[in-house]
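Lecture notes, continued. The same structure-token format from the folding unit now serves as the input rather than the output. Read the line below as a description of shape only.
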């Protein structure tokens, strides 16, 4: 968007909350350089009727060319509520920019938004390192490559979560200009992928107590059982590939090529954990995981019980 040139309506929607909020702030900064607080109205859709929003849109700006009306969580509106806005969108106030943020919207309303609709989806994994560096730079910090890898593996591709953890790391190092691996290891919250590393490491060391503790944390994080099984399967598949590449004399570059994950921290952890398994053990683990997947689909036993049986088998037989 060119600075100062406004659309009458913006629909910012999708799953990537960080990018939606970033886009929203850029629009506000561009359109309200002066007297912003006088010409900015914000509403929550689940607490505000459409008529109130439309009235705000038709209010003239104060000592400025335009005003902004923001409606957060527009997915809370019913289809009937959204239809109420359609006549306004056909003839909007020339002095107001109306912004909707939403998780998703019906196709009917999306059609009305036309070129004012912007969809924000989770980014591909390969773009995450660039965003980590960008967010760090915006916090006034450089970040070491291994720290980039660690925080990506720990948090995943949730930019909001990455921004939160980088902000903590920035506060932690104070005036120092570079975030190092030790800094993010010290402050990054224990989250999904870190726990998967702990789980497979505990299995490799045949430490059943630690294995159950790691599984418990993954379960409590709210991940669906099938996704937990998928995460464990992915990790063991990568461990098997790593072990096979190493057995054939290959190194980190070949492992990266085979598994398609360029993250150097992840590759380093894989190489370290692969030492705890033989190739035969990893092949048996993959067979056990396949059998558990079948039980998930056919057995009436609880998914948690099946997962607990899986890790017992992996610990005692791989």
């Amino acid at each position: 968007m060119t600075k100062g040139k406004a659309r009458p309506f913006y629909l910012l929607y999708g799953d990537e909350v960080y990018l939606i909020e970033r886009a929203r702030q850029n629009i506000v900064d561009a359109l309200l350089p002066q007297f912003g607080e006088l010409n900015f109205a914000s509403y929550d859709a689940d607490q505000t009727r459409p008529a109130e929003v439309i009235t705000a849109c038709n209010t003239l700006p104060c000592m400025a060319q335009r005003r902004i009306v923001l409606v957060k969580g527009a997915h809370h509106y019913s289809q009937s509520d959204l239809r109420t806005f359609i006549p306004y969108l056909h003839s909007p106030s020339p002095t107001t920019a109306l912004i909707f943020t939403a998780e998703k919207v019906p196709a009917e309303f999306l059609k009305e938004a036309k070129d004012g609709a912007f969809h924000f989806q989770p980014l591909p994994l390969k773009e995450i390192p660039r965003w980590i560096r960008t967010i760090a730079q915006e916090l006034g910090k450089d970040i070491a490559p291994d720290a980039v890898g660690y925080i990506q593996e720990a948090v995943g591709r949730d930019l909001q979560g990455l921004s939160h953890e980088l902000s903590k790391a920035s506060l932690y190092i104070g005036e120092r200009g570079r975030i190092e691996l030790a800094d993010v290891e010290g402050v990054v919250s224990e989250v999904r992928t870190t726990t998967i590393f702990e789980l497979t490491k505990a299995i490799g060391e045949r430490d059943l107590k630690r294995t159950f503790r790691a599984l418990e944390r993954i379960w409590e994080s709210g991940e669906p059982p099938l996704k937990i099984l998928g995460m464990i399967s992915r990790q063991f598949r990568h461990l098997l590939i790593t072990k096979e590449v190493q057995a054939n004399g290959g190194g980190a570059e070949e492992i990266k090529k085979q598994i398609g994950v360029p993250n150097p921290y992840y590759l380093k952890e894989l190489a370290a954990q692969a030492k705890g398994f033989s190739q035969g053990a990893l092949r048996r683990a993959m067979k056990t995981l396949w059998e558990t997947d079948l039980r998930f689909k056919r057995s009436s036993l609880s998914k948690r019980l099946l997962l607990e049986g899986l890790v017992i088998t992996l610990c005692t037989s791989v």
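Point for the exam: The chain is about 60% helix and 10% strand.
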